[in-house]
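Q: Could you write out the predicted structure for this multi-component system? I'm mainly interested in how the pieces pack against one another.
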Amino acid sequence: MEREEIFGRLNEVFCEYFDDDDITVTDETTAADIEDWDSLEHINLLVAIEREFGIKFTMGETSEMKNVGEMVTAISEHLK
Amino acid sequence: MRELDYPFDSEDLLTRKRAIRKAIRKETEGINLPEKRIAVLGGSTTHGIIEMLELFLLNKGIRPVFYESEYNMYWEDVMFDAGGLSGFKPDIIFIHTSTRNIRNTPNVKMSAAEIEEALNAEYGHFEELWNKIREKYGCPIIQNNFEQPFYRLLGNRDVVDVHGLHSFVQRLNSKFYDYARAHENFFINDIAFMAASYGLQKWSDPYYYHMYKYIMCVPAIPEFAYNLSNIIGSIYGKNKKAFALDLDNTLWGGIVGDDGPENIEIGQETPKAQLYSEFQRYIKAHRDIGVLLTVDSKNEEENALAGLKRPDSVLSPDDFSDIKANWDPKDMNLKALAKELNIGEDAFVFVDDNPAERHIVREQVGGAAVPELSVPEHYITEIDRGGYFEVTSLSEDDLKRNEMYKANAERGKLQKSFADYGEYLKSLEMKAHIAPFEDMYMARIAQLTNKSNQFNLTTKRCSQAEIESYAANDNYITLYGALRDRFGDNGVVSVAFGHIDEKDKAVFHIDLWLMSCRVLKRDMEFAMMDKMIAECNSRGIKRIIGYYYPTAKNGMVKDFYDLQGFTKVSESEKGDIVFELVLDEKKEGFSDRGVRNKVIVVE
């Protein structure tokens, strides 16, 4: 799956999860850019993303993701 | 809301929780739901649990307000309260601990005596906490038990050997259960079952604990919260009361009208017949815990009865409180059943293999539970996990309920043979016991305040702890009434209490007055009021004030105080009405109304 396609599907998960259609995620997007995205929400967001792509992040990946770009990289690794 | 009814899609709930929360909050906005203050004291993360719990409780008709302890401060919050918890004034305290919170774990170097000591220390830590809560808050406590550890140091021996953690956890759980059996208002949230049922490996995935300090995997949170909401719902009287059961391909295999009663699948002859028999046994066992069984089936009645009368059928026609087998739409039959049994339409669980029938009942009957059924081999699980009849207390009345409804039917037959209603009432040879709240009935009294909707003047809901506190307070007068007659014992059927005015000791306010609809028109309310007035008089009270607060369901008692001989004082725009009765100790019955009960012997 191309990064662009992953971005598209990821964006939908973000919009649905935060119930906000105005969200656009980019490589540089971090939790600081989205109002409701705090550490407690992060875990549920990850579950929603895992569900969308049918994958399961490892603890290593989860703790190293610094922004959405790295998240997309981790997803594409799982989909290889 | 359909998304929140069991069986729900957990992942969908987690993904769309914001949208669902918005929708359920909107749906329940402006509706007068009872507000309950729930303190969640966690030994691990509780954030996601509270979010899901809110959704399920709103869906059950309870508006929760939460207090959340700081991370892993469940013990300190109670023992060294800095004002947060006591200021919150909890109605319920939920203690969310798990095997991860056990501090005194055994190891193979310890002697049996040392392990025993560790066990007692661990248990003592919790018992101290519960006793403190009981003494300080007196509110119901919900406590997790311990799930099995996800590894076994000693292999299969871990559960046998006292050094094993599995053995330790089981013994600790056992002590928790002993406490739960010995104390009312203390409930175990059985996460050991939840974890086993979900799959222990998945449930206990260490990823979620180490990343976020959740003791269970996040996708299991909705199931966890739902199970917890069932306990809370049950405490506040949200349990269902009856099954409305389809027959063909639900209680037996095949269609009795087409195949003939001799050819339906029930009994022990085929695997399918055995499966339906097991399901019938499961349903029948509900009679014993006080759930009413009814039939709602599209059939000729004769055929329906023929199916149930087969000698190898587990359920027989006598097991049912009412049978509707006809060609009317099922939603109409269900409404008729509700009317005849004098219970709410929303008190039913409708069980039917046909999706179209489930759909129409879901659409037409507000509040009834309509579980999705897949295949007969999963019926039990699909109904059981719905938690519709969560037993938080099993009162004597629950155990006798089916007999009571039978006795009602016999009374109905007798009534037809009397021309004069007064003569009929006398022929019932009724005897009432009316007295201040007593210890053995506290559970039943609290249950009645949460379950009675129709004959209920103020619809005040009370926990058992509150009921006990009124009974112990000298400024309150409390009464319960139990009624027996020649056909049987109705148990506790009426509850009333009120308090003496703080400023004027000669004035008494009636806070709650309710009666079970199964003794309507038996003059029990007059016997109760005669007694209440006598009690007030003996305390030197000169004026009794009664209140009627209208709800969607209590229209039948709008004139209650009128009929009791009270005078209307005022009526607000909302329809709240205030009545009064002036006492005069020189008069018979201590007021102008006199003594009104002439048919019940009060003991």
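A: Regarding packing and overall arrangement: Chain A touches chain B through 16 residues (CB under 8 Å).
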